[in-house]
Design brief:
The protein has about 675 residues and is of the alpha/beta class. It has 3 domains: about 5-125; about 135-455, Vaccinia Virus protein VP39 (Rossmann fold), CATH 3.40.50.150; about 475-665, Adenine-n6-DNA-methyltransferase TaqI, Chain A, domain 2 (Alpha-Beta Complex). The strands form 3 sheets. The chain has a 9-stranded mixed beta sheet, with helices on both faces. Strands 11, 12, 13, 14 and 17 form a 5-stranded mixed beta sheet that branches. Strand 2 (about 235-240), helix 11 and strand 3 form a beta-alpha-beta unit. Helix 2 crosses helix 3, helix 2 packs parallel to helix 11 and helix 8 packs parallel to helix 9 (about 200-215).
Amino acid sequence: MNHAQLKKFAVRSREKLLAVTDEKTAHTGFMRLCGTAFVCPQFITQLRNMSADERHPAFAEKCCELGGHYDGVFNTGGGDVEYPEVLLNDILSDMPLSEMDGDDVLGWMHQYFSEPYRSSLAVGLKNSKRLDPEDIAPATQVFTPGWIAEYLIENTLVRKWYECGGAKLNGRDGYILGEIQRSGKISPEDITFLDPCAGSGNMLLCAFDAFMEMYRSCGYSDNIAADMILGKNLFGLEMDERVCGAAVTSLRKKAAAYGSDAEPQVFNFLGGDVENFAGSLAGADECTGDAKAVLSGKYDVVATNPPYLGHSAMDGRLLGYVRGKYPDHYSDLFSVFVVRSCELVKADGKLGFLTPYTWLFINSCEPLRRLILGEKCLESLVQFEYSAFDEAVVPLCMFTFTNSPAERECTFLRLTEHEGEMDVQRRLVMDGAAGGSCGYRFRMKAADMLKLPSAPVAYWLSESAVKCFDLAALGDRYDVREGLITGDNDRFLRRWYEVCADKTAFRRTAGKKWYLLNKGGDMRRWYGNREYVIDWENDGRRIRDFRDEKGRLRSRPQNLEYCFRPAVSWSALTSSSITVRYYDENFMFNVAGSCAFADDAGQLMWLLALLNSKAIAMLSQAVNPTMNMNPGDTARLPVPEYSGETRISELAGECVELCRQDWDSFETSFDFKRHPLI
């Protein structure tokens, strides 16, 4: 499948269709044309050979016929559709027919065609706009690549099959991580699989293939197996009727290839109230019809790629709903779906997810971590390189677990340092699953991670590194504080050379307008990033009383008693590990330059040396490996007790002096005197 060619085709088709019709009609016509090429390519050839006058009635009749066999895209949007001429002329001619035969092609065509709409919604999210309920599905849909689905299916469904004594499946276990714990016996017809966020059905398609191998291993014929799979094994739910149609058609075509005309049990939420905005999060008692029946069951396996949506982007109804039902997990929609999926799975069932990897570390997801690490059995986790997914705007991971606790080691693959898109990541995962020697495969028990403050999933830590967290935390030994927030930095901050020197307190002096400000800044150790000043005239009166048009205070003048005190400081935002600098008593500090304070100068220098050490750099990655290092994260770092030893403090002072000389050798320093090369 040539994705570049398909994407180009979808984008051009969208442009041509929207020039003559609306979004809904354009999507319906385009997907029916793609669906026809997918299930009956020979008709596309016939259609091309017809006259322009013959094409419209022939295509309409064919769609009606295919709708009876394949449902889905042929019935989505209603029966009577006025197909634009451009669809059956220009777009028909442009279609790369040879590329339309992959199982997941309809999913890709939907995504490529709908990408501009999805992108427009994403712009709204960046501008802090809350999503309307009907926009949640299209805004959060991220197509699950085929091999990702295979990984999740193999580490949940296939693992379940093997654990229950099932025969080895041909070509269906290349991604399985870790050991198989065999116990019990199960038949394929007894295993149920649910994708509660089915999308275009890629997870279901992959599960279908695994089930087919299970049935074959038990002597079933292919057509009987296909009937059983769609009738008894596979279930899916989706909020978006359009993408659900792609899933139904894809599954029916797959079944038809084995001589089956069974109907998939994949349903979209139509009608009602709660289900329109809550989807699979709704309880069975809140739904009707097919959705009620599906949500009433308990499944052996759930695997899904849930929507990613922070609580700040949820509309009032959805936010109120998830906050009421899942008060510990509503920070992001994917977290809620993980918890909801646990409710839909049997106690010995398997779960698999593709989600942002922020849940591994951020404070708001600590309840989710403690749930998975303490009440479930985490079995595998792959942490991808930050920019591995073109379709996703967040760094992702995939993980699987059993829905009950057990004392087992989990297998982790840490790909964060291995740049490359999906082909590279796939190869690395396969190599890691093969069990050979590689530097990115780790084994660790969940109980060890629960020992760490806030339970970060820091699986790469050595045993000795884990023991470091037995020490007291930095925040328990020292004052760690976040600086003030002005509410409008453009109004109240300047670089020191942009204002009158006579009005600036370069050495703390009362009665000035501008005062030196520690504002974080670029990666730099020991000394530097001394560029900004803040309007603190009359003890910051303008900032202290800075309000919006409704009279609400926009600023946050917090921890002012710590200003103008010697401190060590780090930037809130960093592209690398924590780097710490010294600031003297002439500085205020804001939210981007958090600080720690000590009792005396020697202790402060010792702390500066400690926080700039390789050991702390490694431990800070365990506490929070993201680019945002907030004061709470730093406060959790383990530190030994200060012994009063002076040599380390002296060496740190020498480092500060060397870096001061370097900083002052450039004109951006207010202590610049002469360039060293002159």
